[in-house]
Amino acid sequence: MRRRLRPLIALVLAPVLTGCFASGGGTDAAGGAQDGSRLRVALAFPPAEGLSPYGADATILSRLGITEGLTALDANGAAAPALAASWRQENDRTWLFTLREATFQDGSKVTPAAVAAALTHATQAKPAPAALSGVTLTAKAEGGTGVRITTGDPDPILPLRLSSPSLAILAGKAYGKEDTKEGVDLVGSATGPFELTKVMGTTAATLDRYDDYWGGRAQASGIDVKFVADGTARAGALRTDQVDLAEAIPVAQAATLDEATREATATTRTTSLLLNTQKGPFKDAALRAAARQAVDTSAFAKGVYEGYADAGAGIYGPAVTWAAGKRTEPVGRAKAGKPDGTRITLATYDNRPELPEAAQVLKQQLEKAGFDVTLEVREYSRLESDALGGKFDAFVLARNTLVDTGDPVSVLASDYTCDGGYNIAQLCDKDVDRAVAKAEDATDTAKRQDAAMAAEARILGTDAVVPLVHQRIITGVAPSVTGALLDPYERTLVGTGTRR
User: Fold this and answer.
1) pLDDT tens track for 227-262
2) Mean model confidence pLDDT for the chain
3) In angstroms, rounded to a whole number, what is the distance separating the alpha carbons of residues 410 and 160?
4) 277-281: long-range contacts at Cβ-Cβ below 8 A with a sequence spacing of 24 or more?
5) What is the pTM of this model?
């Protein structure tokens, strides 16, 4: 079993991490003003799924500039060209995407046939990518530059959906004999500006620049990545010049960094308390209502997050700018019951250092209300399968509500419907499913937003989820670094213009 890093004093921290961030591959191509040095990056989340391109690890690949899809998200959350230069809708179920001229990192061309094959593999992955929750699609090559994609039902947000990191386009060589996580070989198979060349389990990875990237040659010659679950260690590494970029700096460590080295970004990430509706004490809606009543969200925004967050208002926070004006009261809430010493297990993970503290505050609030709470904290990769399997009564999760597709409805389908692939609350409610389905069917943007908020009201009415705070993420950026890509969707970090 791999030991988690523990908070270390700076005297101990520096020598420990010095070896971790020594250049692990490639060379500083020019080593001077013409060519950026290798970047040293500390990420908070070790791979939980062997760097599968289809699950949560897909975001790691996109943040490091390894993979990309047919489309991307622009600053306003709209679909923008990526490997597809353009697209048009032929009818309510069919879209034609026109590819730009690009190559995979092994030098082979990005062809319509290769793109169609990559998307077909994604549709066959088990479990299915969250971006494909409730969606069936087929992709076929069309001429020398076209890919025609047909969905089983009308899908008005298909260009947004294809921007998901879990629908990245990979070369045919990436796939083994069977479409499993273990059967995907990322080395030399992606299309981004940086090529994955070496993976050291869940501890480190090495990337080299891909010089023939369609978007232009990256300024950094490569990236040395270390997965550091301990937030104090990440902040300490930045202070001691062992790291150039460190994601998810704990708010408790923000004051220890120079103001010029910390970047706070408003995000679409909401931290919530999820209650297991399928089994255990919280199968009882009255006890869920009692838990919700016990929670004082102001204690999290002001205390735990030290002002780097807003009190929880719903599934969507202030970064989803249209949501507040469309929010309605929760529908169908049960009357709160009496806990009377009901025993519950509350779990969370320590990759985001605020979460254990938030869970401790929750424990106190719930115990004050009459629950008997056992708290369990692990590193995320050692916790995910148990959480998805419904082995905890309650779970504290930080979730980017637009990360999967950029569409507000997608997170509702994946997290709160009977067939959702990331349904930690184990919620299966017919009224919720109907409301989400109605939102999925809406094609007009304003009507889709209205329907999403109506579905949110239904979900909040079940008390399966209690929003705690809407986060601002702090990224540590060394003064020598320019061009870091910080966005509210947390899909990007390093790009062609990132250098030191």
Assistant:
1) 999 999 999 999 999 999 999 999 989 989 999 999
2) 89
3) 10
4) 277/425, 277/426, 277/427, 277/428, 277/429, 277/462, 277/464, 278/390, 278/426, 278/427, 278/428, 279/390, 279/426, 280/344, 280/393, 281/342, 281/343, 281/344, 281/393
5) 0.76
Residue 473 structure tokens? 């993420």
Sequence-distant (≥ 6) Cβ neighbours of residue 219 within 8 angstroms = 35, 36, 483, 496, 497, 498, 499
Exposure string of 399-435, with b = 16+ CB inside 10 Å and e = fewer, is: bbbbbbbbbbbbbbbbbbbeebbbbbbbbbbeebbeb
- Quote the CA–CA distance of 288 and 372 in Å, as a whole number: 14
Interval 55-111: pLDDT, tens:
889 999 999 999 999 999 987 778 999 999 999 999 999 999 999 999 999 999 999
pLDDT bracket for residue 491 (50, 70, 90): very high
**If we measure between CA atoms, which residue out of 34, 27, 97, 110 comes closest to residue 68?**
110
Query: At 285, which amino acid appears?
Result: A
Residue 330, CB-side half-sphere exposure with 13 Å CA sphere: 18
Q: Which of 405, 327, 401 is nearest to 155 (CA)?
A: 405
d(CA 345, CA 278): 14
Distance CA 207, CA 197 (A): 5
**Residues paired with residue 91 on neighbouring β-strands, in sequence order:** 94
What is the per-residue pLDDT for 489? Answer: 87
pLDDT tens for residues 304-363? 998 889 899 999 998 888 898 999 999 999 999 999 999 999 999 998 889 999 999 999
